[in-house]
Amino acid sequence: MRWRIEGFDGAESAFFSVEVPCHHLGEKQVEKLLSHLASRHLSANEIVRALLSKRESKTSILVVTREYCGGNLVLCCGESPFYSAKVISK
Q1: Residue 54: what pLDDT?
Q2: Is 79 in a helix, a strand, or coil?
Q3: Virtual torsion, Cα 45, 46, 47, 50, nearest 10 deg
Q4: Which of 7, 46, 65, 82 could cross-link to 42 by cystine, CB 3.0-4.6 Å?
Q5: Residue 19 CB partners (closer than 8 Å, separation 6+)
Q6: Three-point CA angle 21, 5, 9, nearest 5°
């Protein structure tokens, strides 16, 4: 089992893709990784505002969302570009 972590910028094809064995990264670590990857595309002020809204439980661009697609968990973070992670069999 591996995590497939990808970055998308509105296009259907990923501009970033990496696979990491699940035993190297737990779910919480993947959530943190997605947040770090998404923050690379923000200005310093946007990062500060995102972290403040995260503390206040408001919608934040750096909050990782959880969705189920075909019965599989998909973690997502960011907005154009955004990053996603899902477990794949390999």
Answers
A1: 62
A2: coil
A3: 130
A4: 46
A5: 2, 3, 4, 5, 88, 90
A6: 170
Give the Cβ contact number of residue 39 at 10 Å.
16
Rounded mean pLDDT, 4-21: 93
Could you tell me if residue 66 is left (phi over 0), alpha (psi between -120 and 50 degrees) or otherwise beta?
beta
pLDDT for 10: 82
* pLDDT tens digits for range 34-71: 999 999 999 998 888 887 866 665 567 888 999 998 88
Q: Where are the domains of the chain?
A: 2-88
Of the candidates 48, 84, 81, 38, the one whose C-alpha atom is nearest the C-alpha of residue 65 is 84
